[in-house]
Amino acid sequence: MKLCVECRTQRAAMRRPKTSEELCKECFYTAIETEVHETIMATNLFRRGERVAIGASGGKDSTVLAHILTTLNRRYDYGLDLFLLSIDEGIKGYRDDSLETVKRNEQQYQIPLTICSYKDLYGWTMDEIVAQIGTKNNCTFCGVFRRQALDRGAAMMKADKIATGHNADDIAETVLLNFLRADLARLRRCPSIITGADSTLPRVKPFKYVYEKEIVMYAYFKKLDYFSTECIYSPFAARGLAREFIKDLEAVCKACLLLEGLNRGLPRMGVGRTKRNGGDDESC
Amino acid sequence: MLRSDSQARMVVVRQHEPLCSPCLHDSISAKARSAIRSHALIRPGDTVVLAYSGGHASALLLHLLAAMRSLNLKHPEKRKVPFTLHVVHIDERAAHSENVEESGPGPSAHAAAVGGYCTDAGVAFHAVPLHAVLLDGGSHSGTEPNTAAGAGRLRALLDSVADATARDDTLRALRTRLLLRTARALGARSLALGCSSTRLAAHALAEACKGRGHGVAAGARLVDARHGPALPFFFRPFRDTSTRELAACAHLLALPVPARAPQRYLAGRRGARSINLLAEDFALALLAANPSAASNVMSVLDRLQAFDWSEAGRAGGVDTQTGRAQDRGTTLCPLCLNPRGPRDGPGRDGAVPEASRLPVPAAEALARTCAACRVGVLGLGLGRNHDPDEGTTAALLGAFAALAAEQGEEPLADRPAPVPRERMRAAIADCLL
Asked: Is B431 an 8 Å CB contact of chain A?
């Protein structure tokens, strides 16, 4: 039986992808929560008394974000006024059920929920838009409309900031996409943890350094449930290709992984079984 | 040890501990309220239906829920919730009486008494005849046209089932369907059941004997949201309280209960007793010898794994409107409403009438039944000399198929579900130790 390397009293339940440390559940929760807290402190992400809208889709990132932010707000007394903000794009079979998860989050964490719909704001649902324009540029429409819907919803609720659940994997994909599109303006902005800092409604990404896999692990062990129905229009999205590429990159050669571990003071990183590439070394 | 004023009437319902009436009431009430509050089972503005059987438990639950209501929506009184309460009593006299004319169209004397109690408490009372479940339209009024015809149809359906246990189970399934349909028609989000620990333990024993052991844990949980978002979820606030305590409390509070307990099981032919009745008798005999038997059974049930839609405790606040079958693609048996397992496929039971010979709705319902119901309720696969004729099978299945379609239930396989824990686990499998 392996013991947790942190507390050395409980049984280790998992190996953390980020550090390859073998941890028990409690130490894993503490590790994630502490890292997010340190990120928030180091970047001065919030100010006391701010009203923060948590962009909540019912997916894993926003469910875990709602959970962790309410926990940290209470534990470290950030003094934030938190509420959930959901957008209903009007995509049948996609959003309806995940909104139910958000309503449950409202109950569980005792934070109020606001729902803004495309239909109310713009008079169009995404289904109607796609029926009109097809599946070529629909993500553009949805992205622009959602950004504005979030802004409008947050402004309506007198928020000072919007917090979204974008994680490290999301940001990596965005960097790659903007790189491939030669969109330098976006390339400069997108890795920032705060965007629009000078505007009336800045957006923050407290999970910027959190691995997507660790978010799944956190939800799994904490028994938080979430919806992850793929948007029915997502097979047509360019982001899917970027995601595949990044996943393939993670199956990097063993030597690089070991070297990275040494350089980062994490000598155990890369040691031990990795199922991803069957352990075959490829020169890079 | 006496707990309060010795002038008050004392009862001994828990081992050797005498309790006075207020303490007994407070103890039961506190447990139920705590369960309701901590899982947000009744939210402000909700509509709640109480399934009222006429027994002590449902009478006490009515008393408790009525007391929990605040009539002021904007400024609710302390420790009260503004919600609408409907009391639904399923009138099953037509199923029990030999002569359908005996049951008559009007409410029973007991229902009339409870109706008066409800009016005084400002709560709506609905007496719905069981045969209404077989009629089209979904009206929940107690004044059905053609009551005698409806009662006759019900009797014919139940009489077509030879086996005593199967008839009991059919009755139970029809009752459940009618409760759900009526509650939905009233706009209810939840349906309160007065099941005690005693009753749940007996029921679990019976279900285990009938091959439905995989569903016993879920059937005893506080919350049961297996019916999905279109139908209300069940909750059982008295699951940790014994029948004895509930009966004593109802008696001490002088609540309106009938002189005779409501008839729960059908009389079998030639005096045959159903497994359900045997299990109940066994459970009661066991309790007489060992009063902690029911809580022991409940303790085992609590430790058995239920389904995602009944894990109110672990999920913290529960949004039971997202109740789903555990795995995507798992359907519920239309008869017992338990999820089908991998061993429930057709063909395992031997001779089953070819689905093609049944009407389409009945054939579809048959395809979704579990093995326990196929054998236990429909009597299929027992051998050529025992299998019922196709007419009987078609009639039974047709009744349940019609109910499912009428309630607008989609096949559960087509509904998106929360990410199953197996899928989460698969995504992180290489990190688990």
From this structure: yes
CB contact under 8 A, B322 and A97: yes
- B111 by Cβ neighbours in 10 Å (0-12 / 13-18 / 19+) ranks as buried
E-state strands within chain A: 14-15, 22-23, 51-55, 81-88, 113-117, 161-163, 194-195, 203-204
Residue A170 labelled as part of a binding site: yes
pLDDT band per the 50, 70, 90 thresholds, residue A274 = very low
Which domain range does residue A210 map to? 24-238
Chain B residues whose CB is inside 8 A of the A62 CB are none
Q: Assess if residue A14 is contained within a domain.
A: no
Residue A58 lies in a domain: yes
Return the minimum-mean-pLDDT range out of A59-63, A190-194, A259-263: A259-263
β-pair type (A22-23, A14-15)? antiparallel
Inter-chain contact A227–B418, Cβ cutoff 8 Å?
A: yes
**Is A6 contained in some domain?**
no
- The whole-angstrom distance between B228's CA and the closest CA on chain A is 11
d(CA B430, nearest CA chain A) in Å: 7
Domains, chain B, ranges and CATH?
Answer: 15-328 (3.40.50.620), 331-433 (no CATH)
Residue A123 annotated as part of some ligand binding site: no
Q: Does A165 count as an annotated binding residue?
A: yes
Find, in chain A, the residue whose alpha carbon is nearest to that of B320.
A104
pTM (predicted TM-score): 0.57
Q: B262-288, pLDDT tens digit by residue?
A: 666 666 555 667 888 888 888 888 777
CA proximity to B20, closest of B244, B291, B197, B248: B248
Q: Is the sign of the CA dihedral B174, B180, B185, B186 positive or negative?
A: positive
Name the least confident of A130-134, B43-47, B381-385. Answer: B381-385
State yes or no: ipTM above 0.85.
Answer: no
A162 is in an annotated binding site: no
Q: Assess if residue A261 is contained within a domain.
A: no
Is A213's Cβ below 8 Å from some Cβ in B? Answer: yes
CATH number, domain of A110, equals 3.40.50.620
- pLDDT bin (cut points 50, 70, 90) of residue B306 is confident
Residue with token string 């008869």: B335
